[in-house]
Amino acid sequence: MVDVSEKQDTARTARAQTSVVINEAIYRQIKDGTNKKGDVFAVAQVAGIMAAKNTAQIIPMCHPLALSGVDIRFDWNVDQANGHYEVVLFATVKTKGPTGVEMEALTAASAAALTIYDMCKAAGKEMVIGPTMLLEKTGGKSGDYSRG
Amino acid sequence: MVDVSEKQDTARTARAQTSVVINEAIYRQIKDGTNKKGDVFAVAQVAGIMAAKNTAQIIPMCHPLALSGVDIRFDWNVDQANGHYEVVLFATVKTKGPTGVEMEALTAASAAALTIYDMCKAAGKEMVIGPTMLLEKTGGKSGDYSRG
Amino acid sequence: MVDVSEKQDTARTARAQTSVVINEAIYRQIKDGTNKKGDVFAVAQVAGIMAAKNTAQIIPMCHPLALSGVDIRFDWNVDQANGHYEVVLFATVKTKGPTGVEMEALTAASAAALTIYDMCKAAGKEMVIGPTMLLEKTGGKSGDYSRG
Amino acid sequence: MVDVSEKQDTARTARAQTSVVINEAIYRQIKDGTNKKGDVFAVAQVAGIMAAKNTAQIIPMCHPLALSGVDIRFDWNVDQANGHYEVVLFATVKTKGPTGVEMEALTAASAAALTIYDMCKAAGKEMVIGPTMLLEKTGGKSGDYSRG
Amino acid sequence: MVDVSEKQDTARTARAQTSVVINEAIYRQIKDGTNKKGDVFAVAQVAGIMAAKNTAQIIPMCHPLALSGVDIRFDWNVDQANGHYEVVLFATVKTKGPTGVEMEALTAASAAALTIYDMCKAAGKEMVIGPTMLLEKTGGKSGDYSRG
Amino acid sequence: MVDVSEKQDTARTARAQTSVVINEAIYRQIKDGTNKKGDVFAVAQVAGIMAAKNTAQIIPMCHPLALSGVDIRFDWNVDQANGHYEVVLFATVKTKGPTGVEMEALTAASAAALTIYDMCKAAGKEMVIGPTMLLEKTGGKSGDYSRG
């Protein structure tokens, strides 16, 4: 794990995105709140937040950081005419620390998406997760980044 | 967490796939073993295996299972003429238990891909992870599944 | 950790109860879904389920068990005339294994109650958790137990 | 998980209380050091300390904090004439950080009490844990709190 | 993680040994129960038991196993005339499963020894841990093993 | 867990050493990269780094610290004429915090050594781990320490 002891503690944020393409039955289930395992987005949100806090245990070379905030959002990208049902997930993570929180945001988004898969897989295993990507980061010596 | 106490312990397997699209510099770094954080695929493999074992702690509604085997493989999908560099990851998980290991395979693949991102992000944050999907599963009452 | 290697794997269940006495403002917040941290019962349910799975890591002498089911329920015990607002929590845990799941049920109920406290404490720190107790258990050599 | 990145790092403490009502046989066992699983209070103390450190993994919306101190104490509240045997537990937690440690104190007290239950349940499952409550906290923008 | 799905579940045990060479002041502290962090052997015992249960999370290629028993013992090897003070630790682990528990026994012994170091290091950092070794194992296809 | 809230955050380092005595077959396996579980040193390095980050969960009275760097190195101490094959491991840990990182360095070295044992035990269970010791530490009120 690379040495960051010379780095300054600065405010840092990162925002990542992923998505889950689902079928119509799953779309109905989530919309109508009829998934028998629970409230899909509420559980996925908790999974994302806990994964963000657990990132340094999941990603071997990741530095442990005391996160100051984690936010998970869900959007719908639906085109019923063409049978396209997609949940778009956004994870925003903040810290004041010596390294960035890109991995925390990406890990949170991934865990939330995997949780959607888990809760809905009884109604269709053909769901596809991703593309998963970093949207933007701020803070740190390497400067801000925003996906073009 | 749904009740599976009536389900039989049977041999079960699942295989999931994901990928990481990288840039040429990262491709060279992995191929030449010059990543300063370590051997990228070796570390990603460990991350995948440990995430598989940790799935029930990452995915809230997932049942804990004593896994009997986890295998992480990496393939290259490279088209240098068109500047396309992609690592394709396969995670295969086995157990003898009352529920399937789809989530373990998907979580292992995701953690391995996130680890590649983490180890290589100093050379380019525009990497894209996914699509992540289940390729096949065997065992259990719902029968075998193979992605068409 | 006492040796249970001679014990038989049998179906076992346990049900525990706890409660959280809250103030009227918190009651309104939960009922109206206006808690700014999220859906209180949904998050508490996830916390309870994950704690049940994590019991052997929280309670030192507890044997690890592959749980087959965890269920967290919430009831209201409200007497507005007398200003009494109370959430009653029930945690039911099942396994097929060599030891009982009393601790998993009690730990799940406790973690769910603590999560309610955490999410609502901005509106009143005087909440009281408990009494926490085992309601019943089935299975195992010592036989069934039901609180009188 | 709410954003605390604007909050100052200040010294913070919290003290929580819970209790376990036990029967006379369990009282004798603890007093005489004859519990076959080990030294009940010593193990419960370790469980409380480790739970305090693990709070952000048990309580979903809790911020991770680098604790600077955790102290678990046990008192007896015994009235033999009336057959009342009760262990009273106090957990005190300190940190220098942006959020308070109420949840760490409450979680530590709960885990210690659950551990007493676990170690003694062979001699009586009718033990009752709680009431569990915050006694006082210091530090932070919302000021000090002391249970009336 | 190698595939053990063809292996039979059999009763398995393993016993490992390690030791900690300490100075006289630490010896007195442990014997007299004056270590200010707590009861050294009681805390080390808990650390060993919890590490045994956590082995598959500490050792990457280790299969998760539902342990049926863990026992940690401490012996003194003291030669005051020559100023030699040594704690000898034994960890015995049992399971009924498809792979052995050598790593659980070795990891338990190591964690218990490290805990002794941690609790006593204020009185002398020159302590030496080890040699750590497997004493014997039983069960499994490869048969029993006993260190000569 | 003793109160360190009055201690200053200072830069701190610690370096620990352990070793694993192996047989010639295992030596060949590691050197030739023919261990069927993977690259022995790469996996052991990951295990050491993750254990360093996890120290406060493994060692009960250890304070949680945000590590700024962990480095695991392997050396050979081989005397083929006398049939002596030994891997020497060094773990260096850095932080900026209120307590030292001796335990993190010792725990990292131990976990890396245990991982070597685990990956190689099919070729000989007589391996011996240790002696494990602190080589040096810097920072903190008690000053620097260097093993004589």
TrEMBL record, chains A, B, C, D, E, F:
Gene Ontology molecular function, alphabetical: cyclic pyranopterin monophosphate synthase activity
Record field: catalytic activity: (8S)-3',8-cyclo-7,8-dihydroguanosine 5'-triphosphate = cyclic pyranopterin phosphate + diphosphate
Keyword match Hydrolase: no
Keywords: Lyase, Molybdenum cofactor biosynthesis
Entry keyword annotation includes Lyase: yes
EC numbers on record: 4.6.1.17
Any Pfam family hit: MoaC
EC top class named in words: lyase
InterPro entries: MoaC (IPR023045), MoaC_bact/euk (IPR047594), MoaC_sf (IPR036522), MoCo_biosynth_MoaA/MoaC (IPR050105), Mopterin_CF_biosynth-C_dom (IPR002820)
Entry's Gene Ontology BP terms: Mo-molybdopterin cofactor biosynthetic process
Domain annotation Molybdopterin cofactor biosynthesis C (MoaC): ranges: 1-140
This protein's pathway: Cofactor biosynthesis; molybdopterin biosynthesis
Segments passing through the bilayer: none
Family annotation (PANTHER family): MOLYBDOPTERIN COFACTOR SYNTHESIS PROTEIN A
Name by which UniProt lists this protein: cyclic pyranopterin monophosphate synthase
Organism for this UniProt entry: Planomicrobium soli
